[in-house]
Specification:
By secondary structure, the chain is of the alpha+beta class. The chain folds into 2 domains: 133 residues, Fructose-1,6-Bisphosphatase, Chain A, domain 1 (2-Layer Sandwich), CATH 3.30.540.10; 112 residues, D-Maltodextrin-Binding Protein, domain 2. It contains 8 helices and 14 strands. The chain has a 7-stranded mixed β-sheet, with helices on both faces. A 5-stranded mixed β-sheet has the order 11-10-12-14-13, sandwiched between helices. Helix 6 runs parallel beside helix 7. The protein is globular and about 50 Å long. The N and C termini lie far apart (44 Å).
């Protein structure tokens, strides 16, 4: 599978480039970082895709290729390093995310954690795999047993519309709450049963690209926080959860939200 090969090659390139000092730059703010590694990895993946599919569209976080998704039947979404801040500070807790969408539907999704050498991947209708082993996870946990990841606590919009306060109350209903700062990997963890839910007030298309399919193929549910179908190639809120607690979370998050 091309997406798997690209993700593994990306991991190898990252490892090779980490031998040298990182060149870190700001995009929109001091908390919105990009490195020379992000750009090199994205360019490498783009080159590999175009060798095989020169007529496909590519939507990447670093914007190295101009792409209007609606003009292409097949669009690849690339996040060369999701969790760049973690990458810069920790050299871990980041991942590579690659997805292929055909007519707005995700058909292939890969999330690769180079540090742990864990490759999560799925093809539509084929289930989810970790490396070469199929993942089968029991989905019978209740809220009191749930481990949830969310960025609602510190998000400015969430603070204004009441979702941040709800997240604090939600923390008392769950076994625990975590903030990893790497959306694609958090979605993969929901799919793998390592997390029971992931909630975000806003993700870009490339953050969500592959993780969306992993969650769907695992048997979990995923939607906007309002319970709507996720849009194609647009920024959106996200609620992903095991089916046993999804309805509770949806009702909890939408009740009396401004």
């Amino acid at each position: 599978m091309l997406a798997r090969r690209c993700a593994l090659s990306a991991g190898k390139l990252i490892e090779e480039m980490l031998v040298h000092p990182l060149e870190v730059m700001y995009k929109t703010s001091s908390s919105d970082l990009v490195t020379s590694v992000d750009r090199a990895v994205e360019q490498m993946v783009i080159d590999e895709i175009f060798k095989v599919y020169p007529d496909h569209g590519i939507l990447g976080e670093e914007g190295l290729v101009a792409c209007e998704p609606s003009k292409f039947e097949t669009v690849w979404m690339i996040d060369p390093i999701d969790g760049t801040t973690n990458f810069v500070h920790q050299r871990q807790n980041y991942c590579v995310s690659i997805a292929a969408y055909h007519r707005g539907v995700c058909e292939v999704g890969v999330v690769y954690d180079p540090t742990r050498q864990e490759l999560f991947y799925a093809e539509r209708g084929g289930g989810i795999f970790l490396n070469d082993a199929p993942l089968r996870v029991k989905r019978n946990k209740e809220m009191k047993e749930a481990l949830i990841s969310t960025s609602l606590f510190w998000n400015r919009r969430a603070m204004k519309n009441g979702l941040s306060e709800k997240a604090q109350r939600l923390a008392h209903r769950a076994r625990g709450v975590r903030i990893y700062g790497v959306a694609a990997l958090e979605l993969a963890y929901v799919a793998a049963g390592r997390l029971d839910a992931y909630i975000s007030p806003g993700l870009n298309a490339w953050d969500l690209g592959a993780g969306r399919l992993l969650v769907e193929e695992s048997g979990c549910k995923i939607s906007t926080i309002e319970g709507k179908e996720l849009p194609f190639a647009e920024r959106t809120s996200v609620l992903a959860a095991n089916p046993n607690i999804y309805d509770f979370l949806l009702e909890f998050l939408t009740e009396h939200t401004v």
